[in-house]
Amino acid sequence: MSYYPVFLQLEGTSALVVGGGDVAQRKVETLLSYGASISIVSRELAPELKKRVENGSVRFLGRKMADAFFDGVFLVIAATDDPELNHRVSQGAQSRGILVNAVDQPADCTFIVPSIVQRGDLMIAISTSGKSPAFAKKIRKELETEFGPEYAAFLTLMGELRSALLGRGRPQEENSRIFHAVVASDILSALAQNDMKAVSERLGQILPADMDATPILACIS
Hints:
Layout lengths: L13 E5 L3 H12 L3 E5 L5 H8 L3 E5 L12 E4 L4 H13 L3 E4 L12 E5 L2 E5 L6 H14 L3 H17 L5 H13 L2 H6 L3 H11 L7 H4 L4
Parallel strand pairs: 1-2, 1-4, 2-3, 4-5
Antiparallel strand pairs: 6-7
Helix pairs in contact: 5-6
């Protein structure tokens, strides 16, 4: 089976997690970090999930799954230690057109979760289409050493630069030339060495003569 790679906007959506162990906890923490509102169903809850329920950051629906819990849900995670229960949850979600991931049961998934390397707004997703999560993890660790925190700073700078240039009403061709020149420059390497003087000098050489780079550099200083 082949998968269509996609990044989902979860801010403000509702997610249902069935299961309360360590795996479910990791899924909950990840979903919360991307802005989803979480409801959980489980016979038992791991200590950290109990804390989440007690402080109100996660809604506890009860110990037993019910069809009504699918109402208004955008995404479902089935993460129990009962494969048959995970399968039933998956079928219930799929029958309602809801995205579902059943942990370690690819046949019961309409989406799979990749291994991720994230540096600010840079996100690199690695998937083996469910064939070998261990291999995806190995590749992720290799990429983590290759892509350092300077990539986050570089993208922050590029975002500020893009906003500043587009706001000046210059021709699209000129803006494109500047963007490509910055990307092709040694600014990323300078950021890796925390050499802000070199970053400033290179921007000064690339940007139009009438454009001050100081406000752009302020975003990463």
